[in-house]
Amino acid sequence: MMNSLIRQKATLAIAVTTCSLVVANAPAADWPQVQGDALRSGNASTQTLQKSLGLVAAIPMTDAILASPVVSDGKVFVIDGSGVVVAIDIATQRVAWKFATRGGPGNCNNVAAPTVIGDFLHIGTMAGFYYVLNRETGEVVNEIDCGEPIFAAPAAGKDRAYCATLGAKLYALKPNGDVIWTWDFVKEVVDFDGDRWKGADWLKFRGDRVTWRDHFVCSRDICLVDNTIVMPAGGRTIFLEDSGDRPTLKKVGEIPSFAGKEFPATFGQSADAAGNVYVQWHRRDNAGRVEVLKLNGDDLETSVVHGTETSIGQHGLLSFAPVSVRGEDVYRVRPEHGLGLCRHTIGVEQPEVLCDAGAICPPVLTLDHAVYGGLDGQIHVVPLAGDGVAGDGREHFTFATAFGAPISAPLAVVDGRVFAGCEDGYLYILGPKGNAELPTEDLEVSELRSSLTGRFAAAKYNWYTNYGDFGGTNANDQDLKPPLRMRWARRLEGTVKHLPVCGGGRMYMHTAEGQILAVEQDTGRLLWRRYWPDVYLSFTSPLYIKSTTGVEKLIVPQGGIKKSRMRCLNAATGELLWEAPFTGSPSWSRQFPPVVHGNVAIYASGSGEYAAQGTEKPFVFKGEPVERDGREVMSWIYSNDNPYYPQDHRPRIWAWDLETGKVVWEKDFSEFGRGGNDCGICVLDGKLYYSVFFGYAASQRQRRGLPVENNGLTACLDPATGDVIWKTTDYYVTSKCTLSSRDGRIFIGGFNRAKEGTDDRFVWCLKAEDGSLEWKSDPVTSALNVVTVGEKYVFSNALRGKGNVFDRSTGKVVNSIGHNYACCRFTLSEPYVLGANMDMIDLSQDGKLVSTGPAIDSRECLGAVVSNGRIFYMSQASGFVVSQTYGAASETLPAVWER
Q1: Which tens digit of pLDDT belongs to each residue from 271-299?
Q2: Alpha carbon 473 to chain centroid distance?
Q3: I want to staple 54 with a disulfide (CB 3.0 to 4.6 A). Which of 276, 434, 436, 875 is the partner?
C-alpha cells in the first residue's frame, strides 16, 4: 500500500494540473445505477470535474427528490418522492417523457433509485409495484406487484437485475422484467410463514413479544458482488448466490459483538471489486462502526475500518450512509459538523477530515474529487489531495441550491456534470461554465396533500408533546382496540430517544444528530427537513403548539457540547422564527421539550462544564475517566446511576416569550443543592411544577465540599413570573424520570434510590396544592421515564424489571407487566399500554399481550403513541418509522401496498 503521505503528494500533483487547465470532455459515459455500479462503491475514477462548475439547469419535479438520478445514453432518469419518473435530455434539458407510478398519495417517500439495464429502466416503488419501462419511450414493459414497499434500488448485473423488498424478499429478473426466481428471508431464515406485517400473526408465532431476533426489514440498498447478491435484512447480512435457475444461500452474516450482541441495523452497505462488503451499522445509543465482511469459501471473515467506531462513551456521531471505496481508502460522511467527510485508510487508526459539512448523502469519488450533497443544501466538491488536515487550503468548491433544502439523495457524476436531486423538488445539473439562474419558484413540497380523517382528527386529539400533554400524563383514550394494520412505513437517517409528536396533520421528529423533520400523519410523506450543526446526542423531543397569534410553532431544545439552543420553527414550513441559548445535557432523562403557559415557553435543565467523557468515575458513562487538569467535568451522556454531580452544576429553569424568544424570567435553585442534570417539569391547573435530583450520596458531597442537606427539590411556581408558591426537599425525581400530574396530584418516580444506604425505590404522589404526601407506593425496582396517569390506570415501567400498575388511591401495586423490557418508553391509550415494536398490552386483562410486531427495531427503547386515531412508532436503533390504523379504521385505511 502506498503510504498516506506519498499518496497525498501524488494526488495533489494530479489535482493541481487538472484544476488549472480546461479539461476536454471525457468520452461519453453512463451512471446506470445508484453510486455508479452494482457494488455501490461510489468509485468513478474515470470521471473528472472542471474548476468552473456552474448551474446548467434546475428541473422541477412534483415532490422532494430522495433517490439518486441515473444517466444513460444522454438522458438522466429521476424518480421523485411521489413516484413520478422523468427522463430528461441532457443536451437540451427538456423532458423526453414522464411516467406516474401507481399508488396515489400513499406512494410517497420513494428512495429506491432507478436502474438501467440494456434497453430498460427498472423502478421499485413505495406502493410495492415494480416497473420495467422502455427507457427510450417510458412505456411500461412489465409490472410486478410485490405486495410490500421497495426501499432498495435494483442491482443490475450483466443480464439480470435483482430487487429486494422491505420485507426482505429477493427477485431475480430478466432485463425485460420476467421473474426468474424469488427468495424470502423471513420464510427461509426466520422460519415465519404468516403475514409479516400483522402483529396478530407474530403473536401466534412467538407466543410472546417479538425481539431483535425477529427483525427482518431490508430498508437500505443491496449490492452485487460477481453473481452474489448481498442483502441487509434485519441486522444480518445475507450472501445469496445466483445459481442460474435458483438461488443458493451462502451465508447469513452476523456483526460481531460490540456494545451489545443484538442484530444491529444497517444504515449503509457497499462493496469493492475484491469482494469486501462494508456495512455501516448501529446497535444502540450511537454505538456502531463500519464492519468489513468478506465471504471466503464457507467462512465469513470480519474486520473493522478503524476510526469509524462510535458509542455513547466515545466522541463522534454515527454515519447514516454507505461508504465509498477506492483501493484501501474508505470515504465516509456523517451528520457532524467538522467531521462531515472523512477518509479512512485501511490499517491507519485515525481518519483524515476532508470537509466539515455534515451529510447523509454518500460521496462520489471522481479522479481528483469527492462530491456529495450536504444537509446544508449545498453540493460540495472536495479535492482528494492535501496534507490530511481539515481546512488545509484545499480548493473546496460549493454550490448552494435555491432554498437551502438538504440534499439526501446520492449524486450522479457523468461527463464532467454533477446531477443532484434536492429535497426542494428540483434536479440540479452542474457543468463546465454553467451560468443558469437559480430557480425562484417554491414548489411547495411542504404543503399537506393528504389530510387526516375520522372522529379523532381534531386538534384536541393531538399527541403534541413527548409526554402527551403539559401535565405529562403520558396517556389518552381514543378508542384504541385490535386489530392493528400497517398504514405506512418510511426511513429515518438518524437516531431518536423521544416519541413521535403530532399536530396540524403532521408528525415531527428530532434526531439526536440535529435533524428536525415533519411528515404527513396520513401518509408519512416528507414535508420538510432542517438541520443544525453542533447538535450532539440531543435526545430531546419537539413540541407542537399553536400560539395565541394563531401561528403553528415547533419548539425543540437542541443540545451540544459546543453550544445548546432552544429553537422555535414555523411548524408548517420549518422556517426558523427564533433561537435562544440554554445550558445542560439533554440526554437520558430530558426527552421533554418546554411546557407552554399563556405566551411563555418554560424549560428546565442544568449548567456546568461538559465533555464527551467526564473526569471523576461517576461522571462518565462507561470506561475510564479522562483527567482534565483536576477540573470536575461532566460526561455529556452521564452514568445511569449518578450518586452526585460536578461542583459547578446548578439547577436552572428558563422562561422565554413564545413570540420573540426573549427571556421572561430565569431561576437558579442551587441554594438548595447542586446538580440539575436530572429534572422534570409539568403544568397543572395554571401552575408550573418542577423537580430536580442532586444525587443520593450525601457523604460524597460532603467529601467534595458540596451542600449535604438535600438530595433533591420539588417546587410549585407561577409560570408567568417564576415566583415560588411552595417547595419541598422531602420528595423529588431520582434520575431518568420527569414528573406528571392529574386531578390535583403530582406523581414522581425515578431510577435511582432516593437516599444513601437504601436500595428501595418508590413512586410518590403529592398534593398539588401544597406538596404534602398523598401516598408512597410499594417498593419498586424503578419508575422509569414518567409515571403514566390515565383516567383509570396509573402505570410505570421498570428497567429490566416488572412494569407496575398502582392503585390510584393508595399506591399499592395491583398488577404488573413482565416480558423483561429494558428502558422502553411506554405510553397508555386506555386500557392498552404500547411498547416497543408495536407491542400492545391490555391492562384490563391483567397485562395480556394482545399484539406484537412486526419487529422493525433492534432495540426496545421506544414505544408507540396514539394520536388523532392513528398509531405512530419510531425505532430508536433502526432508522425506521411506521404508522398503523386500529379497530374499525383498520378495515378502511389499509397500507398503500395492500390491494
Answers
A1: 999 999 999 999 988 999 999 999 999 99
A2: 25
A3: 434
